[in-house]
Design brief:
The protein is mostly helical and 429 residues long. 54% of the residues lie in helices and 4% in strands. Among the domains are: 30 residues; 48 residues, no CATH class; 115 residues, no CATH class. Strand 3 and strand 4 form a beta hairpin. The protein is flat.
């Protein structure tokens, strides 16, 4: 016969249900679950009908000669609405302490900084309130309850309603408290927050902290203004050599490389003003290694007249390895400073050699036939052991790496040929 709920009178749909599907209270049908196999047994059972184990409930084991022990123990088990919350807190002390500590720290910090924060606290507390509403709705709407069971437990139905579970109760309680305190903090943000409005000591410390933060911002703004003024004064100096020395550089290739490493746009522009010729390969190599957007900004401060296209030390070509977009940007910079003719000649020569290797497919390296070592003469074997000779071997040249490199070189050559004349140094075009 189906068991009935003594609280609301609802008759359970399934006789195996332990909790009322309508109100969630324990169904007062004397059914004892087996701790070993979870089988539900009749109230007068002393041993499990499935596995034969002694039945127990509420921590009291059933004895063979005391048939009333199991029902009495089950009746004494906690059945109040918050028994699941109690068990969850008791069994997960570390997790509960961690979550509560994080919540207290977060809301206190947001409350302390509420005078300076605008919409962030309201967004956070709106999210926590919405989560609490969704969890509360799952206790009232059966489809949402089934969805919640499927999400949390992998099954759409459960003998225990979701709202009776300790996890659900703890989550709703924590989210509700956080949301309530949070919205009160947002409402009192103009007064410094909840804590500052109630405790004068916290209010005083908050004002000192926020004033210190404001003073630091003013100091940083003043330093930035002073640096900008100094840059304008140095740039307007009639003697750029003196301005270069004032910035801590020597009027040399080493000084220019240091200015590039420091991302000093004004310093690089001063080197351009004095028209210092570049004679070291390291200047452009250092420029190629700078990240974007600094590489392009620094390159715009350099003038083509500083570089000699006929001097390999002055016009060092960019690296052709690395990301294709970086290589293309470097080629454009090189074409403006040194012209495109030198680099195109080098790339075309490399492409011609690579095409020859791809057409050859296999290179045979001469040497002794070592497949049968015993056929070598004693003198040949001795020379081979001494490293004075080598075996004959073959190398393939039509590898995927070589094919990809040839395609890459062709793309770069097409890029250089297609550059507009105003982006190319005319002397090297």
């Amino acid at each position: 016969m189906p068991a009935g709920c003594s609280y609301c009178g609802t008759v359970a749909v399934d006789a195996t249900d332990l909790f009322c599907a309508h109100c969630g209270h324990s169904i007062q049908a004397s059914r004892i679950p087996c701790s070993g196999c979870s089988t539900l047994n009749d109230a007068d059972s002393q041993y499990c009908k499935h596995c034969g184990a002694a039945l127990s409930a509420g921590g009291v084991s059933a004895k063979r000669n005391s048939p009333a022990t199991a029902p009495a123990a089950q009746a004494s088990a906690p059945t109040h609405a918050f028994s699941g919350l109690y068990r969850f807190v008791r069994d997960h002390v570390v997790i509960v302490n961690g979550l509560v500590g994080f919540a207290i720290t977060s809301v206190s910090l947001l409350d302390f900084l509420s005078p300076r924060l605008s919409i962030l606290p309201a967004v956070i507390y709106t999210g926590t309130a919405l989560l609490a509403v969704v969890l509360l709705a799952s206790a009232l709407i059966p489809p949402l309850d089934r969805w919640m069971n499927q999400l949390l437990h992998g099954t759409p139905s459960s003998q225990q309603p979701t709202w009776r579970r300790g996890t659900w109760q703890f989550a709703v309680l924590l989210l509700t408290l956080v949301s309530a305190f949070g919205f009160e903090s947002v409402a009192k943000a103009q007064q410094g927050g909840v804590l500052a409005s109630r405790f004068p000591a916290i209010k005083q410390f908050q004002q000192q902290f926020l004033q210190l933060h404001q003073d630091l911002g003013k100091v940083q703004a003043g330093v930035d203004q002073a640096n900008a003024k100094m840059d304008r004064l140095l740039a307007a100096d009639d003697d750029p050599h003196r301005a270069i020395r004032a910035r801590g550089y020597d009027a040399s290739d080493d000084g220019l490389m240091q200015a590039i490493r420091n991302h000093d746009l004004t310093g690089v522009a001063l080197f351009t003003r004095i028209g210092m010729p570049v004679n070291q390969v390291g200047v452009l190599l250092v420029l190629w290694m700078q990240p974007e957007p600094w590489r392009s900004r620094l390159a715009r401060q350099l003038a083509p007249g500083m570089f000699d296209p006929g001097n390999a030390q002055s016009c060092a070509g960019p690296f052709l390895t690395g990301p294709e977009s970086d290589v293309e940007d470097n080629l454009r910079i090189y074409a403006r400073l040194c012209g495109r003719r030198p680099i195109m000649a080098q790339m075309q020569a490399s492409l011609d050699r690579l095409d020859q290797l791809l057409a050859q497919k296999v290179i045979v390296h001469p040497g002794w036939d070592c497949k049968h070592y015993s056929k070598l003469t004693d003198q040949q074997a001795q020379m081979l052991n001494l490293g004075l000779g080598h075996c004959r071997y073959e190398t393939r040249t039509d590898t995927p790496e070589n094919i990809a490199l040839a395609r890459r070189l062709k793309d770069f050559l097409a890029l250089l040929r297609g550059l507009p004349q105003d982006q190319v140094r005319q002397q090297g075009a």
